[in-house]
Amino acid sequence: MFARPARVRLGVCLVLTASLVACAPTDPEIVAIEYLRATREAKSDAAVGYLDLDEIVDRVETEVVLVNTDGDPRQFLRDSVRSMIWGLFQETPREDLAYDARPADINGDRATVRVTMVDAEGREQERTIHLRNTDDGWRVSGRSLDDLISYVITRLEERF
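RE: above sequence
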């Protein structure tokens, strides 16, 4: 009599475990959705964590030369980039959206994910998120960073 509920619970646990493995947080589709959700909900720590900071720093270094920094200039630039982008995400208006992603188009260590966002009135907006598979998993990179990099370069030029 008690064996049946135990089997049902075991079955439910196995299904939940399989679904968690199938949609690991490192899948490019999940990263793309979670990144957009974090930016729209002003969760700066999470949003910055999904960015390929190494690529941002590399691209900013080609445009801006920092002088008279104490210590490691690359680390200073990385910390500055992180701080500026973190603040930018805090200023982003919060939106309650529903998200859906098409399967990623994966090419080696690069992926492109098309994400559809739907607001409370049913208006849809589609964004294409470019990602790179790093040692830390999939990170937002490539053309998806262009606006952030322009923002950082402008801010650095204003400050220094």
